[in-house]
Amino acid sequence: MRHRATGLVLLLAAALAATAVPAATALPDGAPAPHPPRAAAGPGTDHAADDPFTADRTNWFRQDRFGMFIHFGAYSNLEGEYRLPDGTTCRDAEWIKRQCAIPMDAYEKQAQQFDPADFDAKAVVKAAQDAGMRYIVITAKHHEGYAMWPTKVNDWNLRDHSSFDKNRDIMAELKKAADDAGIKLGFYYSIWDWHDKDFADPATFPAYEKRMYAQLKELIDRYDPALLWFDGEWDTDNPHNPWTARDGERLESYLRGLDPGLVINNRVGKRRVVDGDYGTPEQEIPAAPVDGQLWESCMTLNGHWGYARYDQDWKSSQTLTRNLLATTSRSGNYLLNVGPDARGRIPRPSVDRLKEMGDWLREDGQGEAVFGARYAGLVEEPAWGSVSRKGDKLYAAVTRWPAAGGTLHLTARTDIRVKAARVLGSDQRVTVTEAGDGFDLKPSGAATNDTATVIELKVDPGPTARVGHGTGLKQEIFDNATLSGDPKITRTDATLNHAWKYTGSPDPAIPADRFSVRWTGSVVPRRSETYTLTTVSDDMARVWIDGKLVIDSWTPHEPKIDKAQVKLTAGKRHAVRVEYAEQTGEAHLRLLWSSPGQEQQIIPRSQLYTP
To answer: What pTM does this model have?
Structure first.
């Protein structure tokens, strides 16, 4: 972690980008023969598997909200400090090899002494359970290239290059403990590799890439992870990183072929809205729901990801719990890190703070504000706390309780009615009064705790029309980028959710570059509200609603988001026209909607009608 990246969308390294399948490279005796990295399919391929906002595949991720990150590797053996030849001490954690310029032979020598004999998978899982965490992501391989499982691909791993018990497999131990506890397990894997001699040179990178594919196949086949968390995808040097967006496309396609149920983060590509299933803001919480993709914020308990014995600057459980509430109120997940020491033990201050978070979540049912909850939508986020929604209930987590006789104001974003209100864990009354642009909440007593006091509001969000029975929009596909002449293909398209990427297209008869598409028909909302229409596109897109151009992004661009606000009436067929053009390179088009009462999603087939 702790990246030195400078940009989100990066140009391709031309020589490697043209490589469809990495060249062969020898594997150690006894190593499994990996499936060759799959060449991205040609024209007619669509890589969009589903809508992560609604798919069964990602349902657990959207519901669970709170996970444990574990940074653990050969760097943990140094516990954040390295004695330099001049006698001074250099400090860092998971980046200590690079930041302290430790020679590779010296780094390998210290790794040989690594013996996390006290790693206790059951204790790790218990710490997660005590915190209320629902999933765990552990570093299978960080930037140092050291594998924390007994890989057969190389001997730079915990079994073959350490003083650890050769008969133990901490990943298998953690998988069993997590399964027994009903907690999902995922793996972090760094694309950037400081140790592999073939990584940095584009000429030899395909040899590294084949070994990477083999290791990822091992992880999937042996441990059946629910999630893969990639890192190290950005442009950098020391060593040079040749990873490209085209490499990410090929890897993501390969992994989904191995396990279609995997949840994959956006760092599999170049950390863009079109990569993977979800975004990964680091050490920050976005101010609002992220446009166009699911998201998860990863954060540390102190100032480091890996263990650093000198770092005792621990965040309070109050701060951490409030962070969790803030992420949930914006439909995000919170991945909170622990760093085991050289013996494999989670530091006691980490365990204590996690337990305190769990105590808050369990107390008086306050976890209802987090698990299965999401962006409130119906009301604005207040300055005095955060608000999440779960069905017909809003959970207002109040961090600034009013003085006796004071009120808490909620600004409504749509017409709603508050039917009841109560403070969880208290019999005090909460009076709700319509006031100006929303409601005033007046509790009769004091806050129930110092972290956040939760007021549960039962609401009537207003009328909703029945689910439609549409079949999609009329789709006309042209074998040119100007929508000119007669369409080559005319058919019905169920949803506008397409990731043709570099090599795909809407149909085998349509080339991967220089094509265009027009969709026409009508969209029928289930609520009468102001909607946000969002396009995710590359290269060009525009949208009309009821004959009015509302999104005009008709200049060639790399993957980007465009939005428009439109008023729609429940049950009414609003004419819609979407046009898209692909010049060269990647091809993406998604059309999403959201409103105060409608959470963000790809506009579903049921609400789209052909002319």
So the answer is: 0.94
